[in-house]
Amino acid sequence: MYDAIIIGSGPAGYTAGIYLSRAGFKNRLITGYSEGGQLTTTTLVENYPGFEKGIDGNELVKNMRQQAASFGTEMTFGFVEKIEGESSPFTVHLDSGEMLETKAVIIATGSSANYLGIEGEAEAIGKGVSACATCDAFFYKEREIIVVGGGDVAMEEAIYLTRFASKVTVVHRRDELRASDIMVQRAKSHQEINWVLNATPVKVHSDMMGMTGLDIRDNATGEVRHLKADGLFVAIGHHPNTEFLGGKLELDAKGYIQTQPGTSKTSVPGIFAAGDVQDSKYQQAVTAAASGAVAALDTLEFIENK
Ligand code: NDP
């Protein structure tokens, strides 16, 4: 019997493992298919404290994994298909067929950026197409950038990118922006931002050197035209990775796991949530790591009181 099964291998999951193992609690972490989570899709992480010159995202999560393993967290590469049981203890079912008995579960499965799903996009991810301006803007100094989306994040990303890019163009599928008035005003006050509204992206073009442009279709006339660009930032929302829960836990209006304020406690005692899967707002590596520590401490308290 495990004290805790941790699901997810980003900063939240590894931090939970470090805390639980260090406290002498038997735990196993199930990585998911994209081991390391979203940090592995970026390059240099410059805003995680403790690394004056920044650290490669892959290296950062590798260090976290080794730190958790050094204290005794067991690791299994795989995917959790189901958590069985209405109350503690639970049975966690892996895609390998293995079943793990555990007193507690920490869900740290993160969220995934939505992409457009258009021709040429998938092969250009990480080579011109990004879903995170704060991660990758630095690499587009004096380059031409397109931001797709009309929400608050698209406005924020466009404003942020003006610090780096020579030209920023926002492409949005409707005439009207979804973003709040204040964010729209802020973005519109930047003369460097160009606006292409009522247009649907249809194809990403790239060559050996990276992205070269985006084809967009004018929704009023149907005309397709080419916009030259070195980078495309897709800002059309994220989705939390909760499908495997099958409705077991209460979710908030946006589909994120609902936790009791200031804790990692979900609607089922003994199941805790940490990181982006329960945070639609901050979604930073450092906030995810912090919430992993909170989940581990809540788990320790739960087991000790049981
Ligand atoms: P939103 O859901 O607010 O916006 C997503 C945008 O992407 C919409 O404009 C939508 O278009 C567009 N979109 C969705 N799917 C597609 C597609 N397939 N092709 C083209 N465009 C598409 O998500 P955000 O990530 O911007 O924001 C998430 C939440 O975080 C929001 O609640 C936001 O308010 C909040 N937030 C608040 C901030 C602040 O207040 N400062 C800062 C950052 C985030 P359409 O409008 O046509 O549906």
UniProtKB/TrEMBL annotation:
Its cofactor is FAD. Its EC number is 1.8.1.9. Pfam families: Pyr_redox_2. Coiled coil: none annotated. It catalyses: [thioredoxin]-dithiol + NADP(+) = [thioredoxin]-disulfide + NADPH + H(+). Residues 2-292 form the FAD/NAD(P)-binding domain. Binds 1 FAD per subunit. Transmembrane segments: none annotated. GO terms for biological process: removal of superoxide radicals. Keywords: Disulfide bond, FAD, Flavoprotein, NADP, Oxidoreductase, Redox-active center. It comes from the Bacteria. This is Thioredoxin reductase. It comes from Streptococcus himalayensis.
